[in-house]
Amino acid sequence: MKFIYIVFILFLTCLGLDVSAINSTDTILVEKLNKEASALKFSEPLKGIKRANDALKLSQKIGYQNGLAESLRIIGLNYSVLNKIDSCIKYYHKALEIFKKNKNTEGIARCYNNLGGIYKGLNQNQALKYYKIALSMANKSHIPDLIAGCNSNIGTLYIEKNDYKNSIPYFEKAISIFLKISNNIGLATSYSNIAMSYYYVNEITKSEEYAIKALEIANENRLETIKLYSYDILAYIYVYKNILQKAQNYADLGYSLAKKLANQKYIYEYKFLQYEIELKKQNYKLASEYLKEVHSLDSIEYQKNLANIVKLNEEQIKNAEIQKQYEVGLERQKNNRILFMAAIIVSILSAIIIFILIRSKRKTEKSNQELIALNKEVIRQKEDLDRINLKLEEIIAERTKDLLSKNQKLSEYSYHLSHQVRGPVATLKGLIMLSQDNLIEEKECIVQMKKCVDDIDEQIMDINIALHDPSRHGLKNPNQDSGNL
């Protein structure tokens, strides 16, 4: 029985280890895909979205909720680089909902930080609220890269508010943390942002220094979006310094890269920058053409924004339904897993019970066979005892009969001795007495004594024969003459 329990426990342990090993391998792969997708956001955001979608599908397959939420968040990050605000908000809220359900503090904080980045261009007060929630959670959980990221993002929010002076301390704090943890992406982002702040507070030398640092890191790590931003700042710096050829070079590089990345925001930004450069060159005809393109892009962007608002509302309704279906699917998957495990356990227990019953039946049958064999042996021994008893009874009866016969003989011998043998002895004594008193002649006395001795001898011989002859019953009873003497 102990052996069965040990086998059962080992089976469940192996099953648990096997499932654990599979889940561990798959979760590591999900995390790897998510990291790759996040790293691609500044270089190849479309490829980053594809990679994050691969992680998303695998997370759904294995039921890895935190990996699923992180995949959704990173898809949102890549869409934010492409300036697709509606898609960003959709994916960030999906991720936030799952992180909240799983009580993942770090995931929740990162989602709030990302939402702050989106809302800083829509609702600055809401954006600041999101950033402060994220920063508070990051400080409590001691997440250095998120603390630095939140500080950097709060700095960018002050840039949006045109409060450049107050943005600088946040960027400096972020830069110090990013340097400690060797986060090149965060460092390049913060360098480019602080360069913008110093530009607007008229510290052009510091602005140029940080912009060049940002561009160097972006070139080393293929951070295309940061290169885009750095080209823009450097172009404005050189317009301000009236080094127009350098400004034109950076503007051309930035416009080419914006076209390559299909970033509409920076396509518009560089068109406007080229207009300002041509205006500064007093090339009014070309400046006018650029201005027309800017107005055209403004009109297109306005129409797109209106369409995006409508689309966003539709997608929010659709996503709410998808999320509901997804939650139902997750619940069903969870129930199926529980039912599957319960079925396995019930099957194993049933197999054990059946095995125990079969073993018990076999033991019972074996015991019954042994009892039948023992019963037969008892009956045989009883019959043997009955035969022995019967034989003993016969022997006892025979011996009893023999004893009775011998007792009879002894009784007869006793009587015979007391009567038949005693008579001749008494005669001899009488003869001796007569001889002593000289009342009988010696010759006659001898004759009579011989007769008595012969009689005694005959009686003794008869007793001896009777003792050795079982067929004899009783003793001879001869006529005694001695009694007449």
From TrEMBL:
> Keywords assigned by UniProt?
Coiled coil, Membrane, TPR repeat, Transmembrane, Transmembrane helix
Which PROSITE patterns does this UniProt record tie to the protein? TPR
The residue spans of each TPR repeat are 69-102
List where this protein forms a coiled coil. 371-398
Extract the Pfam families matched here: TPR_12
Q: Which SMART domains match?
A: TPR
Locate the transmembrane regions by residue number: 338-358
The record's section on SUPFAM superfamilies has: TPR-like (SSF48452)
Q: What is this protein called?
A: Tetratricopeptide repeat protein
Q: Which organism is it from?
A: Pedobacter aquae
Lineage of source species: Bacteria, Pseudomonadati, Bacteroidota, Sphingobacteriia, Sphingobacteriales
